[in-house]
Amino acid sequence: MDSIDFLNISKAMKPKLIEWRRDFHKNPELGFELNRTSRIIKKFLQKEKIEYYETANTGICAIIKGNGNKTIGLRGDMDALPLEDKKTCDYASSIKGRMHACGHDAHTAILMGAAKILNSVKDKLNGNIKLFFEPGEETTGGAQIMIKEGVLENPHVDAVIGLHVDEKIDSGKIAIKRGEVNASSNPFTIKIQGKGSHGAKPEDSIDPIVIACNVVLTLQSVISREIPPSDSVVITIGVIKGGTARNIIPEEVTISGIIRTIKKEHREYVKRRVIEIVNGVVSCMRGKCEIEIEESYPCLYNNYYMEELLINSAESIIGRDNIVLLDKSSMGVESFAYFSKERPTVFYYLGVKNEEKDIIYPAHGSFFDIDEDALPIGVAIQCKIAVDFLNK
């Protein structure tokens, strides 16, 4: 298998990779309603004679069967964002208010390319490859549903690989963060009940707006005074709702926000402190409250062995100088974390920035695009690490 030049094979596929990616980019679909995207992938898998089944509504789990039971999973997410595409190009979104502004169109094309190449050498594989086409990554995460529906079993998946395009990294390079990669997420809602009155007679009220202000300020002391400065934790209040007129003190105020943590111990600690602080502040100011903290995305952790495997495999494709080691974890969330919670995983970033082509705009923005020269690199690395995992 060392004699297979995955990069040159992938480069030969570049026109097809671009065709797939641009078609998905021009026809974006949201959440779990990926009927067209899913239909195209299933047609491709049928043509390649790759077994598959549907999962998580419009998600797909496919399997390339080699020789043996050892199995590795490759994941590609498929959904777009509810955003207006303002680019001027022939593959700009044809659907108003929808856009592939995060690169999932590229992820899907890369997974299809890897599937085609790996299927052509399946008789030389000492094990199996599962392909996870994930819906709903930008919403609640299709990964957790796929896992519940059994994609990591029959056969048992031993490890999973994920990638994400990154507009801050030059095309031709990849980046990896060892250990903790992405934060966990806990959305929360706090309802503060007071007593309404005329705005000119605050003594007749229990003002929930004043209570809410104290809650917001006191919560920030958790970050500044209870968490080590070297560790990353975020408590963000994104919504405050209350009141109907300037001269009326309302009866209720609702606060909504989100907790982001990297370490598991911080996640549990901050959740507990939010409850303690809110109850304490509200009760001492004579109000009542209801607190709901949701369990959302877990932390994404890279496995040490899988990190080393990726670095060694990628080095043979792009050279060690083109592998960037990141210092900081991201406070953003990533549904690949559900896979990392269940199996040894490695998640890395594929550079797609190219200043000469004016490909510099941020993800989740209306001008986002990628340098398509990166597509064959993504395919080649996915193929190489999968083969190295199974055969070495």
Automatic annotation (TrEMBL):
The gene is yxeP_2. Its cofactor is Mn(2+). NCBIfam families: amidohydrolases (TIGR01891). Keywords: Hydrolase, Manganese, Metal-binding. Its EC number is 3.-.-.-. The Mn(2+) ion enhances activity. One of its GO terms (biological process) is diaminopimelate biosynthetic process. Pfam families: M20_dimer, Peptidase_M20. This is Putative hydrolase YxeP. InterPro entries: Amidohydrolase (IPR017439), Bact_exopeptidase_dim_dom (IPR036264), Peptidase_M20 (IPR002933), Peptidase_M20_dimer (IPR011650). It is an enzyme of class 3 (hydrolase). Residues 188-279 form the Peptidase M20 dimerisation domain. Mn(2+) binds at residues 102, 104, 138, 164, 364. GO terms for molecular function: metal ion binding; N-acetyldiaminopimelate deacetylase activity.
